[in-house]
């Protein structure tokens, strides 16, 4: 493949947009579209530059009741502040909006399930095919008229869905309770079927590039369950959805918060293409151990270890961008990475783009 040399003019007339959490996103005069560049990464090819968050259009459409109930709608018609009150999700579970958290939680005190064996009688499954997909497609035509890499998120995966039905403590116990395991397998298989239907509609209505399944598996200090439990109870159903995505030309990302480095083998076995993970994970170890088997999101060495919205000084960030490129770009074909979520200054984004363009040219 012919490599297009870097032209400094690509940094002229930079366009700025406001992205997730109010972060400023910078758009450059790129040699190929951000969509194609990102797809090169997922195809394990050397891209033209290290993709950044400005190259992604993330979508969580209104058509999914979960997104409304959880006050997390990103599409052409986002929720107004008055609409952020919670509501009933697609499985009949009621959520309550918590303003200080800017998100929702399951209404406490009345879990849907005490025992997973009762799920067939108590869980209300949605008729995904009956949703107004054509209306949503038309409403979001301009929103999706972009050369960005389109990522759509299913907010509540498998373990998180079990939590929503049972509360956390009962869900964690159920995963290792011999009397409930068979029922969990049946429930998770049924959930996978719903998610696969949604994927098909996402592809037909929105022409997505990647599905991101949201399923947090850990706390700040450790996973919620063992690798063996993940392999036995969850991996087969993640893999079922991931395999379907791949069969339709869509990439699969797992959004899984927590210090989950011990569970990365489960992600790989499930067919997950990419996992960013939070900064408390030992990314150096993961890159050395699993780089090439899964695309890791890696933070620059000037990023704080805790989640923060405080920008780093340009005099610190720009050299960090150059070190990032020097470290990860030479071996990129064997061990691809993406740039982890980072509230850096514009100068950091510019340096990361320019230096990676030079490295990949």
Q: What does this entry look like structurally?
A:
α11 (283-290) links the parallel β10 (274-275) and β11 (295-298). This protein folds into two domains: 1-55 and 307-361, no CATH class; 62-298, TIM Barrel (Alpha-Beta Barrel). The strands form four sheets. The chain has a four-stranded parallel sheet with strand order 3-7-8-9. The protein is globular and about 65 Å long. It has helices at 34-42, 65-69, 119-122, 133-139, 159-166, 168-174, 181-206, 227-233, 235-247, 264-269, 283-290, 314-328, 346-360; strands at 15-18, 24-27, 56-59, 86-88, 94-98, 103-106, 149-154, 210-214, 251-255, 274-275, 295-298, 337-339. Helices cover 36% and strands 14% of the residues. The longest helix is centred in the middle third of the chain and has 26 residues, at 181-206. It has 13 helices and twelve strands. It starts with 14 loop residues before the first strand and ends with a helix. With 361 residues, the protein is an alpha/beta fold. The model has no long low-confidence stretch (mean pLDDT 94).
């Amino acid at each position: 493949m012919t490599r297009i040399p870097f032209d400094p003019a690509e940094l002229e007339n930079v366009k700025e947009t406001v992205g997730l959490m109010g972060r400023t996103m910078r758009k450059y005069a790129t040699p190929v579209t951000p969509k194609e560049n990102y797809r090169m990464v997922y195809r394990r090819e050397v891209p033209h530059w290290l993709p950044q968050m400005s190259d992604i259009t993330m979508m969580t459409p209104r058509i999914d009741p979960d997104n409304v109930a959880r006050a997390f709608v990103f599409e052409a018609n986002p929720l107004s502040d008055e609409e952020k009150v919670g509501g009933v999700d697609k499985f009949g579970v009621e959520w309550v909006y918590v303003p200080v958290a800017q998100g929702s939680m399951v209404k406490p005190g009345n879990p849907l399930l005490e025992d997973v064996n009762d799920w067939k009688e108590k869980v209300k499954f949605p008729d995904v095919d009956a949703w107004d997909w054509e209306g949503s497609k038309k409403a979001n035509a301009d929103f999706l008229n972009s050369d960005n890499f389109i990522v759509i998120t299913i907010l509540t995966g498998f373990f998180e869905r079990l939590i929503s039905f049972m509360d956390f403590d009962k869900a964690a116990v159920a995963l290792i309770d011999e009397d409930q395991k068979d029922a969990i397998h049946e429930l998770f298989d049924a959930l996978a079927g719903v998610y696969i239907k949604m994927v098909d509609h996402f592809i037909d209505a929105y022409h997505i590039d990647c599905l991101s399944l949201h399923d947090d598996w850990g706390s700040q200090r450790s996973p919620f369950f063992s690798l063996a439990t993940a392999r036995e109870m969850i991996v087969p159903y993640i893999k079922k959805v991931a395999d379907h995505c791949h069969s339709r030309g869509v990439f699969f990302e797992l959004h899984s918060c927590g210090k989950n480095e011990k569970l990365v083998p489960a992600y790989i076995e499930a067919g997950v293409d990419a996992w960013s993970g939070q900064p408390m994970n030992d990314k150096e170890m993961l890159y050395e151990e699993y780089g090439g088997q899964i695309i890791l999101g890696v933070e620059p060495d000037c990023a704080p270890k805790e989640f923060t919205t405080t920008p780093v000084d340009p005099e610190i960030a720009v050299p960090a961008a150059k070190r990032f490129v020097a470290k990860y770009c030479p071996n990129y074909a064997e061990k691809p990475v993406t740039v982890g979520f980072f509230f850096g200054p514009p100068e950091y984004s510019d340096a990361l783009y320019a230096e990676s363009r030079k490295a990949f040219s």
